[in-house]
Design brief:
The chain is built from 17 helices and 16 strands. A hairpin with a 5-residue loop joins strand 3 and strand 4. It binds adenosine-5'-triphosphate and magnesium ion.
Length: 411
């Protein structure tokens, strides 16, 4: 779990601000849900045999012996909230986004932490393949907006309750004949969660499944048609993508379209965003039978990809360098007035020399410095120095506030 310090936090704020801006254009509203939920919510939605539920959740009993869990992902809590507040009664379509911390007890490494942050978006209530294409186009739009390249959109379809069982059975039979080549994990889970074997990073498993049957050859006509329409719309929107029939997701609720934004720049932590359809999830959680689609982006990985190309720390607008008690008092009042007008103004409180105060102004990157000494004070003036061009002029003290507001804000 990491602290995010000033100097790095600017990049986080930029990524969050950009999400609000981009998602806003597509009609999304923000939703904020608690970081803890009943454990049962995650077991029922993510699935009992997934890595997350089997070994990654922070689960504890509260003082009334309720089993609670720190949320490992955002979709299930958002759906819980959607159902609880009967949001479908107000509007048949909901477009919601969230951002915040998630918790998984994983082995920490670069791009993988125990508290990490996601920005996610969900569209509930539309089955139309245009919505899948829209969500994917919005994801690409976001990456362009924040200036992160070297990413590839990979899409797949995992079928539905009608066609997935058939594929699953075919896959189990295929795996059964190659059990000796599979890793211990996969030998254990090939019957409970055979799709995960396709996602295993072990070389033996990769080789053994190179010729595995493809889910795309087993889609029912409804899923097949949906997937081909998604591709048609992606092409119409000039959204580049590749099809990866081996992509499975680590959560059980996905149906039909699934996708990942992958990069070659972060080693094996290569997924920077991931998501898909979950047409059965809301009904499974006790809500109405409504389709949904969404994704989550990992903020830490976005920050890593943004690298040194981050937002510059903000400069101070004005530094007030005062010499002597009276000058310091007047400067303090002026600083406060400037701050109330939204200017970033600072001064020294420890009676430092003028030279030390100028050094401080330089460190803050101040655009203007106001210098007030006893002699200036006696004449009711101050020196106003433009640090960008070095120009210095004497200004009547009572005009300084207006002058600085005009120069900084153009007001
Ligand atoms: P991975 O295959 O990397 O484990 P995942 O399939 O578990 O990812 P999701 O649960 O779909 O990922 O979460 C979506 C995104 O959240 C991921 O693409 C990744 O960017 C980010 N993410 C997931 N787990 C972590 C973590 N432990 N630390 C940092 N980011 C994470
Ligand atoms: Mg994972």
């Amino acid at each position: 779990m990491n602290d995010i310090l000033p100097g790095e936090v600017e990049t986080w704020q930029f990524l969050e601000r950009s999400a609000r801006k981009v998602f806003g254009a597509y009609g999304f509203a923000e939703i904020r849900v608690p970081v803890v939920e009943k454990t049962e919510l995650f077991c029922r939605s993510i699935g009992e045999t997934t890595d997350i539920v089997e070994k990654e959740m922070y689960t504890f009993n509260d003082k009334s012996a309720n089993s609670l869990t720190l949320r490992p992902e955002g979709t299930a809590p958002v759906m819980r909230s959607y159902i609880e507040h009967k949001m479908y009664a107000q509007d048949p379509v909901a477009r919601l986004y969230y951002m915040g911390p998630m918790f998984r007890y994983e082995r920490p490494q670069k791009g993988r932490y125990r508290q990490f942050h996601q920005i996610g978006a969900e569209i509930i209530g539309v089955e139309d393949p245009r919505v899948d294409a829209q969500v994917l186009a919005m994801l690409i739009h976001y990456f362009e907006e924040v200036g992160i390249g070297d990413v590839e959109l990979q899409v797949n379809s995992l079928g539905c309750a009608e066609c997935r069982p058939g594929f699953r059975q075919t896959l189990v039979e295929f795996l059964q004949e190659r059990l000796d080549s599979l890793c211990e994990d996969c030998r254990r889970r090939y019957q409970t969660n055979p799709l995960r074997v396709l996602d295993c990073k072990a070389t033996g498993c990769k080789e053994a499944t190179a010729q595995a049957p493809s889910v795309l050859d087993h889609l029912c006509s409804g899923c097949d048609d949906h997937f081909s329409q998604v591709q048609t719309y992606l092409r119409l929107l000039n959204t580049p993508f590749t099809i990866n029939p081996r992509m499975v997701r680590g959560l059980d609720y996905y149906t039909k379209t699934t996708f990942e934004m992958v990069t070659t720049r972060l080693g094996s932590q290569n997924a920077v965003a991931a998501g898909g359809r979950y047409d059965g999830l809301i009904a499974d959680l006790g809500g109405p039978s409504l389709p949904g689609i969404g994704f989550a982006m990992g903020l830490e990985r976005l920050v890593l990809m943004k690298g040194d190309d981050h937002e510059p720390a903000s400069r101070a607008d004005v530094f007030l360098a005062a010499m002597g008690e009276m000058a310091s008092q007047k400067a303090f009042v002026l600083m406060s007035a400037l701050q109330r007008h939204g200017l970033h103004a600072e001064m020294d409180f420890s009676g430092k020399s003028l030279k030390a105060q100028m050094r401080r102004a330089g460190k803050l990157g101040a655009r203007f410095v106001v210098i007030v000494g006893e002699e200036e004070l006696a004449r009711n003036v101050a020196q106003l120095k433009d640090m960008d061009n070095g120009n210095q002029a004497e200004v009547v003290f009572d005009r300084l506030e207006e002058e600085l507001r005009a120069r900084v804000l153009g007001a």
